[in-house]
Amino acid sequence: MTVRVTIRRQPSTDHGTFGRLSVDGHAFTAYTGELPWRDNRKGASCIPAGIYHCIWAFSPRLKRPTYRLVEVPGRSGVLIHPANLVGDRALGLQAQVQGCIVLGERLGWIGGQRAILRSMPSVRNFETLMGGKPFDLEVVDA
Q1: Do 131 and 56 contact (CB within 8 A), yes or no?
Q2: What is the DSSP letter of 16?
């Protein structure tokens, strides 16, 4: 049986699309950050709401295994990994992702920009919990 992981998003802003991730049957939760909604444009937008299968796979860019979403419409290389900033670059905000999902223990501010904080420990805890096993990720808009 495949585990269901859910992200419940808050409304998207220029600072990013933030939400909460939960894992069915477990107490684990994390804050999430994605780029703002920009019509699913590669490198500029969060992914569309929906259900995605996630697999544990090696990322040449990150140089380590991580979770990868498969069959995202019009997109490839969507990962779950650590980062802090997910703003709209076209508006002069910082972003450390190109369409991926980041996890963190808290929301806060970095340099006047809304941010995900304590990302690395949150991702490590999530990866340990999931144990490299595949799962289905449901992304739900506000």
Answers
A1: no
A2: B
Cα dihedral 121, 97, 34, 93 sign: positive
DSSP 95: B
Instruction: Count other Cβ atoms within 10 Å, centred on residue 93.
Output: 20
Rounded to two decimals, what is the model's pTM?
0.95
Q: Are 71 and 53 within 8 A, CB to CB? A: yes
6: which strand partners? Answer: 22, 138
Q: Please enumerate in sequence order all residues whose Cβ is within 8 A of that of 26, keeping only pairs 6 or more positions apart, or say none.
A: 129
> How confident is the model over 58-116, as pLDDT tens digits?
999 889 999 999 999 999 999 999 999 999 999 999 999 999 999 999 999 999 999 99
Give the whole-angstrom CA distance, residue 76 versus residue 57: 13
Whole-angstrom CA distances from 129 to 22, 25, 46, 98, 124 are 12, 11, 25, 25, 9
Residues 97, 43: Cα–Cα separation, whole Å:
8
Quote the tokens at residue 102. 């980041």
